[in-house]
Every structure is written in C-alpha cells, then in structure tokens.
Amino acid sequence: MRQVFIFVIFLANTILFLFSSASNALETDQYLVWKSVSVMGGEIKDSADYINRFLNDGIKNILSKVNSNVNKKGNLEYECEEVMKKILKYINKRKDFGYNNSLASTLWKDNSVEKIPQTNFTLFAFNKDSIYKNDLIMLFTPLGPSIRVNDIYIGLDKLIHMFVEGSLYYKIYADAIKNDLSVEDATIHAINKQGIKLERGVYGYKTSRTFSYGDLEANFQGLLFARRFCEDKVRGDSDTPYLKNNNGKWELTREIDIKDYINPYMDESFSNSHYLPSMWNKIKPQLQKVCYLLKSEWVIKQREYYSKFAKSFSQLYLEKLIKQGDLNDPRSQSIDLVCKEYESENEDNKYEICKQGK
C-alpha cells in the first residue's frame, strides 16, 4: 500500500511538472555551485554577453519584421505595447522539453555556455549529489544547471521566471493600471496574484513543498523588463523606454543589458527558500554536509559581493509580509542558522564525550 501511495504522489508530481508553466522551470541546487567552485576550483565563464547578444539580435530581427508591416494609409500597424508583446513572445517561445523559453533552452543546449554542472539535460543526472537526494519525489524530478551572470550564480530556471512569469506579472499589472490603480498598487497586485498565490500552490508548496523567494524576485525583474519597453521612469527619473518610434519605424533606443535585472536575491544560496516540514526534514541534513563551505574563501567573498546589492521593491514588500506573519520566514531555515545549530550540537556532544571519558 505504501508503495502504491508513493507511486501516486510521484505520478501526480510528474504530471504537474510536465504540464504547468512552473514545470518548465527546472529546479536547481545552488549549493552544487559552492562545491564546484570552492572544492573543485575555478569559476565558470560569465554568460551576460551571450545573453545580451541573444536578446538584442532577436529584438532587432523582430523590429525589422514589425517595421515592414504598414496599413493602407502607410502607418505602422503596431503600437508600442503590441511590439513589446511580440518581443516577449519571441523570448518565451518553447523549443523543447524542459524549458518553456527559447533563451533558457539555447543556453542549456549550447555546450559553449559554461554551466554547473556542465552537462546537457540527462534525466536525474546529478540529483544524487544535490540537497534533494533524500526526497523520493525530487530524486525523480529533473534538475537544471546554474549559470553565472554579472558574477552572480543563478539557476536557468530563474530566466524562465523572469521572462515567462514576468510577462504574466505584466499582464496583471497592465490591467490594474487600466483600472486606475497606482503603479505601486498594480505591482503589489501582480506579486500577490501571480507570484505569492502560485508559490503557495502548484508552483511551490503543493508540488515541490517549497516557497521560492528567488523565483518571486525573478518574476518581479521580468515585470520591470517588460515595463521598460514603453514606460518612462521605471528605474528612475532619467530612465527612458527601450522602444522609440523614429520617423515611422520602431527602434531600440539602447541595447538590453541582462545585468540590469540579475541580482543575488535570485540565488537561493543567498536568498533561501522556505520548505514545508516534509521537505525540510530531508533538506536540513544535506545542508549540514556543506556547512564547511561557509568558511571557504570563495563563498565568503561571494557573499560579501552579494551583500552590496540593494533590495528591490518586491523583496522589501515580501519582507514586510514576513514581518506581519503573512508569509513564512525563510531565515528560520537559512544555512547560517542550520550550521550554527549543527556546530553547537557537535560541541555539546564533544563535551559529553569528554565528561564520560573522565
């Protein structure tokens, strides 16, 4: 009976994995990065330039096609927001199983892009080395690799969240603006409706038993990305839209730079997730095994670099909800606290052994 129950759980999780848009963002283990860089030595090549070429070349191609479409009066057929949606559709085009996004899929399949682990998608290839190894469901759920962008390590899944979920954030945001909500209230509405609600549901607690604050940060950055195509002052008073109608032709006012959007709060070794007890009881022992890496020179320097980044509007809003008790506090499951408690327990055990020896 127990075997049947486990199989049913596994089958349900697999179906959700395959057919929800969240499933197209494969989970990653950021502590594999710690092990790879600190123990095996050497950082991987930064992928920012590769991503920028992909985005800018693709967008220019879309604009070329858009500018060839004119109506009978000789005017451009598309308004700015319509052009932006075509750009997002290009980025989010499904290319294969695993990643519902042409950018992430291209990065995944291109062996010239350095990743951790450096492997093409092989079912369950490195689950046995991950923090999920003791969980039956996650052991049989494919994991994705991490890449380096702006000296920040993120899972490829964060690009899915940024562009796919960010696009959905934008739709909710835009509808709210049309209903006379302020920019701030419209943003909060998108975070609540598309982000928090789904992390509590089929994108998080109800499947992987995980609430990912890193995913929510990526979602929010995707919203900012979408807004900056046609809106003024998204990132400050001097910020101007990416798109401009110049003598009847749409053009980029400047090239996209992915580094504007990637921050440490997408790295779940820095901004950790919150796990339900059934998952946490299996994750915690695996975190204890990497406690020694907190003292590695690379991890110390990386965390110092991360600490210099300002928190986004979304991050501050989520922290407010945590303080109010409306969201679970991930700090209770941080690796710092886990390792502090683990070291304290070991010291107590050593003390008891010494006493018994006397």
Helical fraction equals: 40-55%
Describe the strand arrangement of the main beta sheet, using strand numbers.
1-2
- Strand residue percentage: 5-15%
How far the N terminus sits from the C terminus, by CA atoms, comes to 51 Å
Q: List the secondary-structure elements in sequence, H or E.
A: HHHHHHEEHHEHEEEHHHH
C-alpha-based Rg, rounded: 22 Å
The dominant shape is: globular
Describe, in plain words, how this protein is organized in 3D:
- Helix 7 (157-178) crosses helix 8 (183-200) and helix 8 packs antiparallel against helix 9.
- The termini are far apart.
- The protein is mainly alpha-helical and 358 residues long.
- It is built from 13 helices and six strands.
- The strands form three sheets. Strands 1-2 form a two-stranded antiparallel sheet. The chain has a two-stranded antiparallel sheet with strand order 3-6.
- The longest helix has 23 residues, at 335-357.
- It is globular and about 70 Å long.
- It has one domain (2-357).
- Residues 17-24 and 350-358 have low confidence and may be disordered.
- The chain has helices at residues 2-19, 31-40, 48-67, 80-91, 102-109, 136-139, 157-178, 183-200, 213-227, 277-288, 297-306, 313-324, 335-357; strands at residues 146-149, 152-155, 210-211, 243-246, 249-252, 274-275.
